[in-house]
Every structure is written in structure tokens, then in C-alpha cells.
Amino acid sequence: xxxxxxxxKVSLVLGSGGARGITHIGVIQxxxxxxxxxxxxxxxxxxxxxxxxxxxxxxxxxxxxxxTLTKAQVFRLMDxxxxxxxxxKGERVLTILQDVFEDVLIEDLPFKYTAVATDLxxxxxxxxxxxxxxxxxRASIAxxxxxxxxxxxxxxxxxxxVLNPLPLNHVTKKENIVIxxxxxxxxxKEEGLVAKLNPVGLLQESFYxxxxxxxxxxxxxxxxxxxITIPQDAAGxxxxxxxxxxxxxxxxxxxxxxxx
Length: 260
Known about the structure:
Blueprint: E1 9-14, H1 23-33, E2 37-44, H2 46-55, H3 59-67, H4 71-76, H5 91-97, E3 112-119, E4 124-128, H6 133-140, E5 150-152, E6 155-159, E7 177-185, H7 199-222, E8 226-231, H8 243-258
Parallel strand pairs: 1-2, 1-7, 2-3, 7-8
Antiparallel strand pairs: 3-4, 3-6, 5-6
Helix pairs in contact: 1-3, 1-8, 2-3, 2-6
């Protein structure tokens, strides 16, 4: 197989999707190994977190740490709080991340980084392109009802994936190769399974169907040069203990997508 031969500067769009986003690490490792220069990252939720690690030159360290996680360690990262505001504070994760990369100002990063959150009250996207990268991550990963939302100025912010799970519209370097990592690929569902689900399962499947449609529309409208698609059922939201498998999956799917 021949690999594409063209200018290799990349704008990388990293979608949201919980533990499936650990595949982003494998994608980045593949791109760097093939000589691509990622000089713009746009991410929401887990995509904002992995993109921040790359921007801080610590994506390898993040992957190494993720590979060590067990189910018990993942559970210990859950800092439960008053369920009125969300099940988890989300502060313990950021505290642990300090061992991987330090908080920095986004404007001091060596390339363009954008994290996407959602202003829930006004139903608008909020972009973090300056200020604390930890604040950007914390707002972007605030899954409603799971992580406590973030008050930022006069806004109440939650997960960027609520409105835009694959934020291709915020790429600024149009001259780059645009590569999207879509975490909402079609799952391999058993025929007739949906009709057998309980109410919670139906609600979950409805939410996933909505996300897939949003991502599909974004891809159709903005047409990135390459799309790396991760099946929605590749991992559950909290399956971080499967990080080794997911990093390897991201690497393999990136290789498949970028072959000429």
C-alpha cells in the first residue's frame, strides 16, 4: 500500500464519547509516526482532554498512564457529590492529570487549540481559545447529570458534545489536511435488539441515535479530508480500564483510513 504524499500539516478534530475517546491517543501516535505535523486541535469532552495532552507534549505520558488503569482505579477517580448538581465533581480527575501535564495558558501553546463546551441556558457553543487549559477541559467534559457543570462568568457550562459531538465547524486552518475522529460510528447491533430494551436502554439508544445523526450531518456539511470512525459500541462511557485495547484500536483505524 502507498501512503498519501502531500503537505502533512493537520487540523485534527477530536470528538466526544467517553472512554471511546482513548482511541484519540492511538490516532495521534499513528499520525506522528507517519510524519504528520498536527498544528491545530479542536476537541470536545474527551477530545478536549486528549488534545490538551498533545498540546502540552504529553500524549505519550497520558497513554502510558491510561494503560495502567484498572476498574478499581477508575472507580476511585469518581469523586461523588450532591446529586442535585451532578453525580461527580470532576476535580479528582484533574488533580491526577497534574502528574501527566501541568495547567498552562492556552494562548501560550505552540499551536492553535480549541476546546468546545456548551452554554446550557443559552443553548450556545462556548469556545476556549485562551485562559487555563484545565478550566477548558473541566467545562468541556462536564457530562450533564454526571459531572457537575461549570460556572464560567455568567454562563453555566456543560459537555461540548451536547450540541456538537464532532466540532468540525471550528477548524480555522482550512489549508491544512483536516482529519476528524468520529466516536459515533454505527454500532454492530443485533437485529431487533432495540425492541427488547428496557426504558433506560431505550433512552440510551435514542441519545446515541441523536449523536450519530449530529455527527453525520457535520461530516456531510464540512467534509474533512479523512474521517477515522470509531464504532459507538467499541466501549462503554466508563471503560477506561480497556485503554490498551482502545489505543491500539485508534492506531489501527487511523492506519486504515489514511492509506492511499
